[in-house]
């Protein structure tokens, strides 16, 4: 089934069930007012939500309303946990290669993961706010899962069964702040502002054969200022599955229901800068840092700038029939001073 | 005023107002069912909660019940953000000195802060669960604040006004996992399991003159297996105030109501190992790592072991009259396999 959260002036918004074709939705206050409430009591809520979903798809839902992606907040407008992996090692290999460093062997068996801020996500159509372009604003197009409760030390098989929902995410990074933050050794902190998630979150069964071995085997569509920028397949070159990432997160602690675990920037192995961009027949990139690394490896220095105020980012995914699965993340970079002045 | 959360079988527990002397409490479902709900609507809820607090202290609260610290969860059993600073640079200086490294000059002006897991805190009397003693289980006794909404780029003066509550925390660390995690560059992730907070959270005004310049100027009492282990003053040698720490967290992103910001391990400057322990007339330590660093500096290697299953940790703070302000964190280290078998 498909779920979304409509903005309603409250911090957690209103949970709605969305039809498979993203045309209709229905509020379900009698089942759960918010997505977190549904996740807190999933075994009880999910079968009821599934019945509403079936009725919506059959055109038999009495309370159906038109679904408007632009009215959505992120499915979880705020969450109790957002931990982001770095499962596409190609991305890490490029970072290292750009500075002539080796990738440690352990990186292929022990996932990289950082704890992110989850107190105030932005909506999929909200601006990316920053106080300065000098921060080096970059997109990162990723896939993420939402879990139920996971016990400490859960094996990947146990973790796999705790995956409740799948969604897309733009994990914005402030590239020029990262070196100083990482040098301090405590993680990305100031270099990771608020993320935005796709309008719709879907259960893994909804993805059919495209959800295989706990990976989502479809191309991720990333457009930059209206032009194709990335089309990599999220199921290729993913060194760690979502089951492995969730198990990694739970190694020394329980995970609470509503925990979001990200894949890290989707990245497919490509031979070189020439031929890697969509324009040149490649699958392109899911972040500007990656094209800048290719440029550095081939030309000694990056050429492509980071995002400027006014730049736009679109992230979506289509099934084999060409239908949007999660709706579209569509954000424009704005100065934070403009917030509330619209 | 003083607030606490009683365990009631639900994930967020039940908010109660607690009398100043910690003897009485009253549930306030008509004002706010949970502490997060009160924080979400603080300007509306706080004056009503204050009236209940005044009635409790005057012995005039109709619904007053005995307050039992052992029935408490952490004030926020789960939170949307937990970010922990490292404001007592003495602790960092010792770490570096133990490995013959310099403290970078920037550390005195740019706070260290990491993003912690906030999805499932444990209660103040709950066990510290781990799967192995080999993880190097350590306590970290700290002070923490809970904020309201904070705008991006807030100055320290603005951040100060957003501090809603003060509490104590045991930020458990898995010392033997830290080197590998920090070497990966993405922060502490697996080396920071669930934290526990004091039974009671208090508004800054409740602390009177002991809350000065956004620091809490009282000794923190830490006992290990029933013996005094630390008595450092939390207001001394704190390089960054809570206003500065909150502003640091908000530099590139908004903070949502209910954000918890920690001080880092409280640590006072002391001359040497001899004379620094409580037994030898010093103020002692708030974590085992610190005494091990003194031992390393003076003797070439640590002698004091990390926590073993069965070890106990108590953390509390008393006002000038000797009264407990926050109640007591009192935890025993247990194997996670014992959970649910009590």
Automatic annotation (TrEMBL), chains A, B:
Which ranges does the record mark as transmembrane?
none
* Alphabetized GO MF terms: catalytic activity
Q: Which Pfam families match?
A: FAA_hydro_N_2 (PF18288), FAA_hydrolase (PF01557)
Specify the Fumarylacetoacetase-like C-terminal domain's residue ranges: 82-329
Family matches, as InterPro entries: FAA_hydro_N, Fumarylacetoacetase-like_C, Fumarylacetoacetase_C_sf
Please state every residue range assigned to the domain named Fumarylacetoacetase N-terminal. Answer: 1-78
Which domain of life does this protein belong to?
A: Bacteria
* Protein name as it appears in the record: 2-keto-4-pentenoate hydratase
Q: What is the species listed in this Swiss-Prot or TrEMBL entry?
A: Pseudoduganella armeniaca
